Amino acid sequence: GGDTSTGGITTTGGDTSTGGITTTGGDTSTGGDTSTGGDTSTGGDTSTGGTTSTGGTTGTPVDAAPDGPAGWTCDPSLYNAGNGCDCNCGIWDPDCDIAGQAVNGCSPGEVCVQPGVCGTATTTVLAYFQHGAFGIAVNDGMVYWTTTGDNINGTVVKVSAAGGARTTLASGQDFSALIAVDDTNVYWTNYNGGTVMAVPKTGTGSDTPTAIASGQARPVGIAVDAANVYWTNVEDGTVMQIPIGGGSPLTIASGQGAPWMIAVDSTNVYWTARNDYTVMTVAKGGGTSVTLASGQSNPYGIAVDDANVYWTDFVNDGMVMSVPKGGGSYTTLASGQVGPYGVTVDAANVYWADYVGNTLMAVAKGGGTSVTLASSQANPAFVAVDATSVYWTNYNGGDYNRVVKLTPK
């Protein structure tokens, strides 16, 4: 607790290269708020992390099963059975979406790229020499990220998810931190500048960014929905919202101990409070804040899906946790992590960047063995996913200040 800085080692270097370089080496595969208490149990299934390969046993499909899903050519009992990814069975096996599943029908170390096609995951560097690459988001086939620069020289950049030339949407930002994207704009927090900013996402670099909120107290985390932008103010312990079309900022929670990362769903706002060691929620528009988890060591990144809230505990021997959005016992999905930082989810898995361990990790939402998607990274910070790939920022390391994607995820 008490450490409200976002910084790591500040490096130098400019943005002098072109993107889209594909590599095969190094990256080894990619309101006073009244608390109502909360559930402080530590129950759940604890895994010890670790690494599994994506390889599995090599097998041959059996004859087509007349009562299997349309197009399924293997024993119907194998389809979506949780017993491994069956690759060579005519159609996609949902088991292939779950991290940690063995891959049947491919050689050891291979992944199922598509039905009947085995291969290896490809790591692509979308941008090199990004000075303090930090927040990241993916939207409509484009990847957006912030760079902190030297804390007064931050940028907001975009590139096609397929790679290519990059566009700098904003420069000269005062420690541009986290980022969010909707159908129209890119939004980000300027941690040192005390502003929440926006620029059209279709911009070509000539648009002037707009401060939709100023005079904020060290804003960091940011999220957006169809109506509002939400952010955390670390220094004064508030959680804020403002209409995306402009207006006056509204304090929806106060008295928080270093509120950090933030996420939203259709009804609520969720955040981690590092100095309170809690995971919190409040209704959009404000109300009584509710403690979903307490007694955490250093709750950091946060993500939500339809059922649960997920967060990282950013300490040595750190953990990745989940709790039902309505409260209850929380579950340890992964333990033994060196420094889990940013986190995101998709339909099947939880993904996180281990900032200290220099790895990009995943685990099935229900828990299980953690999988190393990429190693030998340079302080990977935040992570995003789309239908096919996982993307992350490497915060430190000169040439290793990279924006990277892994396909398939």
Q: Per DSSP, what share of the residues sits in E-state strands of 2 or more residues?
A: 35-45%
- Give the spatial strand order of the biggest sheet: 1-6-33-32-31
Q: Which whole number gives the mean pLDDT?
A: 85
- Proportion of residues in helical segments: under 10%
DSSP E strands, number? 33
Q: Which secondary-structure class do the elements indicate?
A: mainly beta
Report the biggest beta sheet as strand number plus sense, adding barrel if it closes. 5 strands, antiparallel
Distance between the termini: 33 Å
Task: Estimate the global geometry from the Cα principal axes.
Answer: globular
Figure out the total of helices.
Answer: 0
